[in-house]
Amino acid sequence: EQQEKWVPRAVNMEIIGTYAQTELGHGTFLRGLETTATYDPNTEEFVLNSPTLTAYKWWPGGLAHTANHCVVVAQLHSKGVNHGVHPFIVQIRDEDTHMPLPGVKVGEIGPKLSFSTANNGFLGFDNFRVPRDSMLMKNAQVLKDGTYVKSRLSKLTYGTMVFIRVMIVTDMAYYLSVGATIAIRYSAVRHQSKPKENEPEPQILDYVTQQHKLFIALASSHAFRVTGQWLWTTFVRVNKALTSGNADTLPELHAVACCLKAVTTRDAASMVEACRMSCGGHGYMTSSYLPILYGITTAACTYEGENTVLLLQTARSLVKAWQKGSKGKPLSPTEAYLMDKSPVPKWENTLDGIIAGFRRVSAGKVQDCVSKIDKLVKMGTSYEDAWNQTSVRLVAASEAHSRAVILATFRAEVSRAAAALSPPLARVLHQLVHLYTVYWALERVGDLLLYTSIAERDVQELQQQYEDLLQKIRPNTVGLVDAFDLRDEILNSTLGAYDGRVYERLMEEALKSPLNAEPVNQSFHKYLKPFMQGKL
Ligand SMILES: CCCCCCCC/C=C\CCCCCCCC(=O)SCCNC(=O)CCNC(=O)[C@H](O)C(C)(C)COP(=O)(O)OP(=O)(O)OC[C@H]1O[C@@H](n2cnc3c(N)ncnc32)[C@H](O)[C@@H]1OP(=O)(O)O
Ligand SMILES: Cc1cc2nc3c(=O)[nH]c(=O)nc-3n(C[C@H](O)[C@H](O)[C@H](O)COP(=O)(O)OP(=O)(O)OC[C@H]3O[C@@H](n4cnc5c(N)ncnc54)[C@H](O)[C@@H]3O)c2cc1C
């Protein structure tokens, strides 16, 4: 009945909430969170407290001035025992006056790289009392007398984060579609330089280097949308099983959500930055929207699980899978390829050949990590230290695994959908799959040379395939970004507007600057003139 109590009020916006988990002192290590929720059986209340400055919640979006409630993650104490972190729904502001309630200290954390519209806040409690039903009791409960009933699966507390990580993959597809639309439309309008003296300045979109910077962002948007859809379907299936008490598939979902969130956010941030830089000085204008878009995508590398930490979570799963598989036990579908002990096949410059190659790279890297850890432990190093000394390789193995998942999913889903598409559209989408796959083979050619039978002539041929694909995709590029159908109001960009009037829009935006309100700014009289007259 907790859902009946809270959900309708949240849906009709009586309750505006945020997720208050991260503290000044801890964001990654959740078991180290310091906020306490101590049960008082005499009053059937929890007492929330921030015992130290580092216990203050810090970062939650909207916490400073928007939210009047929040989900607080705190260490649950009852009958003198600490039962670990649990979620509580807590009212922090009066619903009429919006004043912070007594015992609640809340405020704004200050300017950030981007996301300036989100008032991220801090929150401290001074022995703040909330009723027992504030504890979200879907998984674990505290009875009236303070008896703690543990959850059938402790990690269900972390479930919210899996959900958001799954959503983030699709978010990155969207952000890349915005960046690609702005940069490709601008590159169609911008003319620059004279490679041929007797011809007009060409569109910068015709420079192959410009195509190399931008087409991967366009292809990645589709790859992440397709992968995000597959991941969502997987999430729904796992969640359904969880509801009927079966948690067998949760570890696989957690592992694949971690590495996909990490790789898609890192790619989105670096590719949006490439979009910004491909637009020259005008890409550096806030009015282009590209700097803001960069700030948004780079934040995603940190929030909802810092990328390195998440890649190491997936590596933990890959190492466990290797150890399980080596004992002949079955592996999850996404990790089953790790046990492919067949001899390394002759390299093929095909999509299937490259996908198989990335699986070989991932399996090879995992095997190298396991051997290094085993060797260090045999020499007397603790497992934790051996893990840490191998962690650079573990992150690389996790990335290779993630790339193999994205490549295979993108190819399979587009091939499946192609049957229902017109031949010209199917051909263009296959070109994007081909470009994405060959791009990453060239980006990771060192790994492929280490773990597969790819030879130098294969690499030369792949480079030529890649350049041919840039040429094939060029005529459809503007059509492909128009197909994202992003309205000008959403793009919010002087460079990406549908009508292509970039110079008029840049000037219109410039003239809105308050610094253009008068021809001589007061700073001349206050500072420049006295300085020039030697009076400062
Ligand atoms: C479509 C267009 C849309 C456009 C617009 C969209 C709008 C978007 C706009 C703006 C969005 C802005 C949104 C911002 C949102 C940000 C919010 C936040 O940031 S909330 C804070 C996030 N914080 C973290 O994620 C902490 C990360 N840390 C952790 O998760 C843990 O501390 C961890 C996992 C690193 C370590 O936790 P240990 O120490 O308790 O666990 P260990 O010992 O490593 O593992 C124990 C076992 O638990 C499993 N495990 C760990 N986490 C799990 C999980 N989540 N689910 C299932 N199992 C898990 C592991 O696999 C492991 O299993 P075995 O023991 O190996 O079998
Ligand atoms: C824009 C934005 C919005 C946010 N919104 C929210 C929100 O709404 N609610 C909320 O609760 N939080 C929110 N956060 C906080 C976010 O979840 C944390 O910043 C994130 O979990 C990282 O934790 P941290 O900041 O403590 O970094 P740390 O964990 O201190 O990481 C710092 C460095 O240490 C490394 N490191 C840490 N642990 C390990 C390890 N075990 N192995 C190897 N390296 C390690 C990391 O890789 C990183 O390089 C937001 C953050 C941002 C930037």
Automatic annotation (TrEMBL):
Organism: Plutella xylostella
Taxonomy, superkingdom: Eukaryota
Required cofactor names: FAD
Protein name according to UniProt: Acyl-coenzyme A oxidase
Domain Acyl-CoA oxidase C-terminal: 352-533
Keywords for the protein's UniProt record, in alphabetical order: FAD, Fatty acid metabolism, Flavoprotein, Lipid metabolism, Oxidoreductase, Peroxisome, Signal
PANTHER family associated with the record: ELECTRON TRANSPORT OXIDOREDUCTASE (PTHR10909), PEROXISOMAL ACYL-COENZYME A OXIDASE 1 (PTHR10909:SF250)
Domain (Acyl-CoA oxidase C-alpha1): residue spans on this chain: 158-319
Organism placement in taxonomy: Eukaryota, Metazoa, Ecdysozoa, Arthropoda, Hexapoda
